[in-house]
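From the pipeline queue, job 12 of 40. The input is one protein chain; the requested action is below.

Action: predict structure.
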Amino acid sequence: MSSIPSFGNTPIVQITPLLPVAQRVTGQTTSAHPENAKIEKSAKDFESILLGNWLQQAEQSFASLPGGDEEGDADSAKEQFQGFAMQSLGNSMTAAGGIGIAKVISAQLHKAEDAGAARAEKSNQNPAK
């Protein structure tokens, strides 16, 4: 008897989680250092908010028709839910890799952090008299 469980005549295949595989393929790793995790989370949060705002502005631009009745379409609840929807879409886009803004911001913040650490180390080696 086979060790592979089956459903009827179709074997059930174990599927590995995709995130570790995707990180290995793209060369990305999850940071173990808490400061690195904070930087990456902040960069992703910023990209998510930015994408949500862009999407919301684009939706408002393209949703109105020239010569349409703006007052007839005005509904504050509709606008709020559309805002939530666009923010959620921005979060989803960022979680799926975004458009690269988070990676750029994260890289720059890591460089700044490394430069600051190097300056601190240098000043500790050469104390002022």
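Job complete. The chain has five helices and two strands.
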